[in-house]
Structures are given as C-alpha cells and as structure tokens.
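User: I'm preparing a small set of examples for a lab meeting where we compare how different chains pack in three dimensions. I only have the primary sequence for this one, and I'd like the structure in token form so I can line it up with the others. Please keep the answer compact; I'll paste it straight into my notes.
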Amino acid sequence: MLLLLQSSPTIFAIFAGVLGLMVGSFLNVVIHRLPKMMERDWRQQCAELNGQSPEPAPRYNLLVPRSACPHCGHAIGAVENIPLLSYLFLRGRCKGCGAAISPRYPIVEAITGVLSAYAAGHFGFGMAGIAAIAFGWAMIALTFIDFDTQLLPDDITLPLLWLGLLLNLNGAYTSLPNAVIGAVAGYLVLWSVYWAFKLATGKEGMGFGDFKLLAAIGAWLGWQMLPLVILLSSLVGAVVGIALIVFTKHGRNIPIPFGPYLAGGGLIALFWGQTLTQNYLQLLAP
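Assistant: Understood. Below is the structure token output for the 286-residue chain.
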C-alpha cells in the first residue's frame, strides 16, 4: 500500500481526500466538544481554588458520550456518520425527530477532504506532504473553534508548535534555526502589538491564543514567512471586519476573532509562500 501511494501521486491525493473526509467528521466533534471540555476544566479548577469540591459530572470527552441529536437525543449510528453522503441521504434532517442538521457539518468535512487532497498533490508522498495534511486539519479545527468561542485551545496550538520544530530538525519546510527564530518572533510580534494596544486604549485587542498560533506557524515555516502571514491575515481580517460592520451592522465593540485569518495566512504561506515572496521581490527589482 505504501509503495502504491508513493509511486502514484494521483492515488495518494485521492487517498488523502477520502481520509480527509473521515477526519473532517471527527473535527466536527473536536470543534463542538473541546471548548466545552475546557469550560469544565476551568470550573473544576475554580472550585478547587475556592476550597470547594467539584460537582460530579458525567464523563465527557472527544469519544464519550456517543454523538446524538441535541434536539431529541437520537443516537447517531454508523450509517448516519458517513461524511457528506449521510447528510445528503437524510436531506439535512435528524432521522429521529426531523430537526434540521447544521450545514456546517458537511462543509467542514468537504473543506477537510479538499484541503487534504490538495496538500497531498502539492507536496507528494513523504514527510512534508503528510505533515502538511495534519497542519491543515489543525488550522480547520482552530478556525471554527475561534469563530464559535473566540478561543484557540492550547491543546492544539502548543502541540502544533512543538511538531513544527521537530519536523524542521531535518528541514521539512525550513532550517531548524529559522524555525526556532520563527516561533519566538511569531509570539513576540503579536505580544508586542497586544501590549501596545492595551497601553494606548486600555483594552485587549487580541487573545494570547493568537500569539501561540503565530508562534506555531513560525515554527513550521520559519521567520521569513511571518511578514507574509501577518500581511495576508491583517488584510483579510480588515476586509471581513469592515464588511461585517457595513453589511450586517456588526457592532464596532463586538470582537472579531483573528485566529481564522492567521490560519488562512498560514495555509497560503505553506502552499504558495515561496512563490508569492519571489514574485514580490521581482516586482521590486529594478
């Protein structure tokens, strides 16, 4: 099987796309449950700090309890968990009560499948290709979690940072010195922006999770890609923010998560960063 995937880029891309569809189904669980797990941990820690005994709660993690309809409690069977197809077969409604199923579920599955196939085709079979697929999965989970809760969980960003450094021990995407400097610079750049904004306005402009995410991106791609990532994420974030204010009457005081735009900038830099940088330098050349 490994020889087949290695010898045929097309088969590897198809395999990665199918695997991505299945992983996308699991990412929906991560996106929904991980913030709730974090809230449970925070409540338990607060209770312990106050000298109280945490209230007993049923077991809740990424595997337990079994997925069920939030409206009627209908347990979702294996056939109902087939990526994309089950949503189409059920016509977007719960088999038990007929309540509408959010289209986000098939959207996440489709995005994960397409991104996985593209990463496999772009990098080919090997460490760089396999790691790029995992990087895309992490970015998708972080994007939707941040949209929902304005949280970027350490359970994803910190392992992502360490994995980037480990991969670059052998120069998967950049040299190890560039990766280490990228991790440090990525954190410090947004940390500096955070404190400059807070000292100037007395408000927090972003969360600490944004620092850690950019540090992780720097660990993967090296410090040279950070200006491109910051530029792309800032431009897209500004355009989306202005559009929300103008067209949806989004309040100016309502925070807009920055993590999704950092994730998008990181993915663009991963796939096309070298090309974009070279083209930009050629435009500047006399």
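A couple of notes for your slides: The chain is about 70% helix and 0% strand. The chain has a mean pLDDT of 90.

User: Perfect, thanks.
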